Structures are given as C-alpha cells and as structure tokens.
DNA sequence: AGGTATTCACATGAAACTATTCTCTGAGTTAGG
DNA sequence: TAACTCAGAGAATAGTTTCATGTGAATACCTGT
C-alpha cells in the first residue's frame, strides 16, 4: 500500500466543517439570542464607564451554559471598541477564578491582575501585601476606569474565603485617579448568602439572573451556530432536536450542547461520513463524557489515582461498597506499589472529591448500629472504566 | 409494646505540619583599578 | 571598590496529619402494662 493512500481518503472527503471554531467554547457570536434583556441591562449598568464614571458593581447568577460568560464578554468587547474609538481610558479585565494555577488564590489573582497591566510578579516568594502595593501603584498610574470581571467567583470564595473580595471592593477608597468596578459571575444561585454582609452589600448592588434555556431556544442557538460551522446539509434530520433534548436534560446547558455537536461532527468526519447522523451523536455523547472523566483523573495526584484504582478493582462482584472497604483495598495497593498509605481522614476527602467529579456516586447513609459511612458506586460506564483502569495501571505502575 | 439510651463507623472541621519552590538580603569572596 | 556568589530567612502552596467533634438510625436496654 502506498503511504499516500493513508491520507487520500481524508483529502477526498470534503470536510464537514466550514469553521470549527464557531463551536469552540471560546467563540463569542456577533449576536446572542434570547438574552436581549440581560444584555440591555448589563449595557445600561456599565454605560457610565464610557463617561469615565464608575459603574455599579454587578452580580450575575445562572447555571452553567446559560450564556453568562458569553454575554459579559460580548459587552466587554463592545465597550472596548467604543472606548478605543473615542479614546476613553477604559480597561476591561476578564479573569476566570477557577483556572488552577492562574487565579485560584488571593496571591495569584492579584498577580494575574498585575500581569494584565503589563507588570510582572514572581509566582511565589513575595508577601501578599507587597503584591497589593504593586497593584495599587500600577492602577493609580493614570486616570482610568477598570471593569474587572471575575468569572466563577464562587469557586474563589470556597477556596480562600471572601477577604479578597472585601479588599477589592474597598480598593476604590485607596485609589486617587482610577476607579474599579466589579462584575461577578457565579454558577451558584445561593452563593451570596454565605458571604460577609459588607462584601455582599457592596458587591451585589445590581443583580442579574440568567434563566436556563429551554429545548426550543437551544435548538435555535444550535441552528445558528451550525449554519456557520458546517457545510449545508451536513446534518441529518432531527439531529439538532436530539442534541437540544440532551442539553435540556442537563438543565439547559447550551455549552454542552454545542460541545456535543462539535464532537459529533468530528466523530462523523473521522469515520468518513458525509452526513452527521444520530448514531454519531450518540457516540459523541459517550466520548464527551469519557474524555471529561479521563482528563479530570489524569491531572490528579498519584494518591488520588491510587484511591480511584482501588475503587475500580472492587465492583466486579459488588455494586455498592463503603469507605472502610475501599480503605482496606487501598492499603494493599499502596503496599504493592510502595506508596506510603494515607490516613482514612484523607481518603474520606478524596472520595468526596471523586464524587464531585462525577466519577463515583457517593451518598452518606447511616447503617444504624453499624455506623455511618458513604454508600459508593461507580458512575461511569464499562468501557470508560476499563480504559481508565489501564491508564491508572500505567500511571501507578502496578502489574496485576 | 413503647420509649429511651447506646453505639458504631465513619463524616466533617480546624489547625498545624512538611516539602517544595521561589524571592530577597546581606555577608563573604573575587577581580579589576 | 564594584561585582559576584551563596547561604539563610521568609513566603506561598499543595498535600497531608492530628486532634476534636458531629451524626443518623439500628439495636440494646428499660419500663410499665
């Protein structure tokens, strides 16, 4: 066989995609459907910035994939355009607080802000107030309005408390020339309730709620994206509907629907099909889920993987099991690959995290006289679980 | 039978510790004038 | 004397350990009938 033929198929079959980036999670469409009201509202609140006055702080709630981030980014982009055209000293900053090793601690968040202003700060070694000082100085170099967007702000406070938010809201008092206002975005609807009242009152001056999309709205969104992303008639009948239905099941998460559509396209393309069918979609659904789990696990520390490996070893006979049983298995595995065994306390936390990742299903039950524990079952499908086991075996270097 | 007290097997919280990575400082060393 | 080196003090962070306290309901143990 000629080497060339290996690739010929791919060349001949015209790509299903026109523009794949339209379906990527970072894409911001020109117009955002079903969010006019919210966009108007945000625009109204932020507009004083264009007159070099400080806008009120805004707080935005809504579940994942309801268009919060896209809307805000859209607004920021328009604001920036107008500002540069009219030479208005406006600076917009967007920071996602969830990104590990970027902005998930007080120090790193401020360091990231400094970077946005062109400064540079070492990743460690400095006292935090020193970092604050650098930040203040940098801010006050010139007269300007700063719009700081903190996405997934709830993650930040879970990890490090609300002190940092307090500092940020107070910052205006310290500044001579600049003014800063904050746009907070949270997935958690009750987030503000366990927040310091001082922070809460100053942060959530204006509140906005993004309701979930319903299936019909998601269909429209998908259609408009698909029109730009795919060649005409690349989609099978009913595909959009099925895709939307899947997302509606997940409380109207548009992002997942779009993601799913893209992966379905990729799956179809790889198999050389000229039309994306429901079967491709089903496969994509599995793949998305499995990829999510695997990337989540691979990036975890060894001990974490070790615990998961222990869990995966058990369920061949049993469906549900308890913390204690897992701990026993875990101990033998540690011995086998010469890890030092962690305490049960730690394992308990790791199990909780695995539950959060959706790899396992853990429910706290009371067995009465026989104590209280987690009732654990694996919540990933067989194929993924086998794949995962292989990956973990390699990573932990345990042979059977 | 009905009511209360125990008890198990962990869960959950807080604080403190460890190892690692990194900066900053200042003493000691070196090399050139 | 200026430049360089290098050890030591301090910080931040991730991952733990230690200690302390909490907890839901199946059982054991009473109680009075």
Strand-residue fraction?
A: 5-15%
Q: N-to-C terminal Cα separation, in Å?
A: 39 Å
Share of residues in helices: 40-55%
Quick one: how many beta strands?
8
Structural class of the helix and strand makeup?
alpha/beta
Discrete helix count: 16
Weakly predicted, low-confidence segments: none
**Strands in their spatial order, largest beta sheet:** 2-3-4-1-5
Main β-sheet, in a few words?
5 strands, parallel
CATH C-level class of the largest domain is Alpha Beta
What name does CATH use for the topology of the largest domain?
Rossmann fold
Q: What order do the helices and strands follow?
A: HHEHEHHEHHEHEHHHHHEHHEEH
The mean pLDDT is: 89
Assign an overall shape: globular
Q: Can you say what the CATH homologous superfamily of the largest domain is?
A: P-loop containing nucleotide triphosphate hydrolases
Total individual domains:
3
Rg, rounded, reads 25 Å
Please outline the helices and strands.
Blueprint (H helix, E strand, L loop, with lengths): L2 H10 L23 H11 L11 E5 L5 H19 L3 E7 L9 H11 L11 H12 L5 E7 L1 H8 L2 H12 L4 E8 L10 H7 L2 E5 L4 H15 L9 H11 L4 H17 L7 H21 L3 H12 L7 E2 H14 L7 H14 L2 E7 L5 E7 L3 H15 L4
Parallel strand pairs: 1-4, 1-5, 2-3, 3-4
Antiparallel strand pairs: 6-8, 7-8
This protein binds a DNA duplex (33 and 33 nucleotides) through helix 15, strand 7 and strand 8.
């Amino acid at each position: 066989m000629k080497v060339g033929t290996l690739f010929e198929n791919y060349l001949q079959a015209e790509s299903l995609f026109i523009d794949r980036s339209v379906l990527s999670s970072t894409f911001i469409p020109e117009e955002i459907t079903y969010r006019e009201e919210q966009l108007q509202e945000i625009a109204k609140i932020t507009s004083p910035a264009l007159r070099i006055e400080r806008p009120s702080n805004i707080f935005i709630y809504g579940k994942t994939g309801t268009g919060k981030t896209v809307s805000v980014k859209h607004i920021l982009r328009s604001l920036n355009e107008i500002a540069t055209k009219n030479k208005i000293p406006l600076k917009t900053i967007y920071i996602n607080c969830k990104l590990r090793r970027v902005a998930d601690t007080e120090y790193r968040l401020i360091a990231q802000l400094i970077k946005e202003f062109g400064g540079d700060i070492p990743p460690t070694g400095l006292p935090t107030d020193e970092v604050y000082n650098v930040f203040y100085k940098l801010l006050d170099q010139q007269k300007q309005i700063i719009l700081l967007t903190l996405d997934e702000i709830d993650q930040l406070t879970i990890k490090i408390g609300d002190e940092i938010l307090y500092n940020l809201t107070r910052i205006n008092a310290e500044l001579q020339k600049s003014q800063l206002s904050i746009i907070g975005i949270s997935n958690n609807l009750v987030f503000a309730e366990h927040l310091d009242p001082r922070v809460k009152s100053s942060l959530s001056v204006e509140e906005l709620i993004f309701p979930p999309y319903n299936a019909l709205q998601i269909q429209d969104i998908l259609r408009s994206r698909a029109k730009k992303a795919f060649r005409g008639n690349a989609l099978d009948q009913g595909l959009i509907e099925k895709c939307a239905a899947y997302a509606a099941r997940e409380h109207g998460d548009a992002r997942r629907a779009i993601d799913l559509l893209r992966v379905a396209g990729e799956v179809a393309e790889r198999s050389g099909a000229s039309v994306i069918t429901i079967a491709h979609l089903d496969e994509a659904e599995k793949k998305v889920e499995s990829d999510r789990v695997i990337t989540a696990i691979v990036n975890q520390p060894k001990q974490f993987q070790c615990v998961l490996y222990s869990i995966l070893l058990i369920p061949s006979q049993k469906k549900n099991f308890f913390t204690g049983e897992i701990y026993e298995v875990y101990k033998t595995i540690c011995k086998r690959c010469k890890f030092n065994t962690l305490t049960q306390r730690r394992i308990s936390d790791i199990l909780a995290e695995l539950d959060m990742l959706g790899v396992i299903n853990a429910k706290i039950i009371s067995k009465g006289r026989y104590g209280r524990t987690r009732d654990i079952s694996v919540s990933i499908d067989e194929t993924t679980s086998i794949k995962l086991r292989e990956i973990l075996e390699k990573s932990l270097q345990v042979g059977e």
